[in-house]
Structure formats: C-alpha cells, structure tokens
From TrEMBL:
Signal sequence extent: none
Catalytic activity reported: N-terminal N-formyl-L-methionyl-[peptide] + H2O = N-terminal L-methionyl-[peptide] + formate
Cofactor remark: Binds 1 Fe(2+) ion.
Top EC class for this record: hydrolase
Phylogenetic classification of the source organism: Bacteria, Bacillati, Actinomycetota, Actinomycetes, Propionibacteriales
Name of this chain's protein: Peptide deformylase
Listed SUPFAM superfamilies: Peptide deformylase
Domain of life where this protein originates: Bacteria
Organism of provenance: Nocardioides panacihumi
EC numbers, comma separated: 3.5.1.88
C-alpha cells in the first residue's frame, strides 16, 4: 500500500473529533493497511487516521513486536498511573514526560467489524491512550503540566518544520524520517 504523508501540528484535522466508522468495507481495510505501512516506515508505536488526514475513528499500533489496529475504540483506564517519555509523529523531534493510566482495556472492532477486546499495560496502554486522544482531537502536549506545555510550544515554534507551516500559510505534510523522531514516538 502507498505510504501516506503525516499531518503535522497546526493542521486543523488534528484538532477535530473523528467520526465513528459505520462501513466495514474494502476502503476501511485499505485505510488500516495505509496506516500500518506508514506507521512502520516512520517508524512509530502508533498512528491514528487523522494523522494522515482521514477523520475516522481508526488507529494502528506497533508495540513489543505486535502490530494491531482498533476501530471505534472505547477505553476503560486504570486508576494507577505511569509517567514516561512520549512523542508524536505529528510533532517531530519533540519528547516530553507525560502521565497516562498504567493499564487500559480497549473495546472496539477490527477492520472486518468483529468485536475486539485489548488489554494492555505500560507502553501498549500509553500507545492506545495516545492514539485514542488523536481521535478526539487531543494531542499529548495538551496533557502536559503548564510549564512543560509552554516549553513544548516554544520548541515547536522554533522547529524547522513549524517555520514551513508559517511561511506557506498551510500546515505541511511530510514523510517523517526515523531521525526526525529522535527515538520513541507514537
């Protein structure tokens, strides 16, 4: 499947709530394949449909050697939390410590419309929460404390890619290289 350009911070699609999937058809399966291929090439631990400009509630993940996807997720989060480095393919080069639930139970569907239940902790829980946030128009920097969020915004404004968005008048789309993510990114 063709690799898709990843939308960057500043693109309005990243702030819009994605619509539930109603048709579990060939187009949805193609979307899941495009998301998976693009995520693996980036590389990242997850990728949500809005990150490639598609406003549907679908995401993929790649954690601990396992590739998966979830359609129309509904999450139950643990009360216990974890802190850890988090990045995002839509905000290249940025990593901050972000608090998330330690474990998650995610219910939804696979690309064929079959019910799916995923239980995960640590990195898988972080990836599922991060990608579900994308489906709700929330970015991980929104979850940072005020000081970290201000520092992140300053770093974004000073980035080379953010300058491109300002100069062109539109949010750029790019194929993110492994060097741009500087490590873990979801």
């Amino acid at each position: 499947m063709p690799l898709q350009p990843i939308r960057l911070f500043g693109d309005p699609v990243l702030r819009q709530k994605a619509q539930p999937v109603t048709d579990f058809d060939k187009e949805l399966r193609r979307l899941v394949e495009d998301l998976t291929d693009t995520m693996l090439e980036a590389p990242g631990a997850g990728l949500a449909a809005p990150q490639i400009g598609v406003g549907l509630r679908v995401f993929t993940w790649y954690v601990d050697g396992e590739v998966g996807h979830l359609v129309n997720p509904d999450l139950t989060l643990s009360d216990e939390t974890q802190d850890g480095d988090e990045g995002c393919l839509s905000i290249p080069g940025l990593k901050y410590d972000c608090r998330r639930a330690l474990s998650v139970v995610a219910r939804g569907f696979n690309m064929y419309g079959d019910p799916v239940l995923i239980e995960g902790s640590e990195l898988l829980a972080r990836a599922i929460q991060h990608e579900t946030d994308h489906l709700d128009g929330v970015l991980f920097i929104d979850r940072l404390d005020e000081a970290a969020r201000k520092a992140a915004m300053r770093e974004i404004r000073e980035s080379d890619w953010f300058g491109l968005a300002l100069n062109s008048g539109t949010a750029p789309t790019v194929k993110v290289s492994p060097h741009a993510t500087r490590g873990f990114a979801i």
